[in-house]
Amino acid sequence: ARCLEVCPQGIDYMELTKGFRAVAHKEGEETVCSHGGAFQSLMRIMTSKTLQQNRMGWIPKSAKIKTEGDILYFVGCLPYFDVFFSNIGVKTLNASLSTLTLLNKIGIEPVLLPNERCCGHDLLWGGDLEHFLKLAKHNIKEIKKSGTDAGIVFFIASTDTTFVIAVRKPSMTTFAMIRFPNSSANLVARIE
Predict the structure, then answer these.
(1) Tens of pLDDT, residues 17-71
(2) Burial (CB count <10 Å: 0-12, 13-18, 19+), residue 54
């Protein structure tokens, strides 16, 4: 993103890179994927309309959450990271629990989506626009069903970036970034 700010020609290198990767993907070229492409495969599986997940199993009974409301907490892929990285002791769900606890402590009972899917960040940057758009459209539909109109809290920076930069399409909801100083949470307000 910094390249765009300083480029004297005004070239949007992020869009250029995504565009080149999309063309390469369409031509059958694959980018080198970290972790053997496991997350890209998981994201493609998540595009299935019949997918059944236990997205709410990590939430403690003491947590205050809603099924509809003004503010949504988009958890993203965090529940899958603990399983995938268990051999190195990654505990990403602790971050989700801390975020939820923090929101509750400041009086926010966020909406959590039982049918949320991954944001598709790795698919987008790998050029697989077909599967990325399926995930984006699914998540936007789920967000709209929740009635969220004040904002969305993201903990994962790549999810935040994906929504703010990539999901800003005319056929989908548009988002604007609002950052909280001294906080790990970002709020993204919907603008339609």
Answers:
(1) 777 677 777 887 777 666 667 778 788 888 899 988 888 999 999 999 998 888 8
(2) exposed
Asked if 120 and 136 touch (Cβ cutoff 8 Å), the reply is yes
Give the separation between CA 2 and CA 6, rounded to whole angstroms: 7
Is the pLDDT at 144 greater than 70? The verdict is yes
Determine whether 114 is exposed, middle or buried from the number of CB atoms within 10 Å of its CB (0-12, 13-18, 19+).
exposed
Structural tokens at position 68: 């509809």
Neighbours of 36 (CB within 10 A): 8
- Any bridge partners for residue 190, and if so which? 175
> 76: buried, middle or exposed (CB in 10 Å: 19+, 13-18, 0-12)?
buried
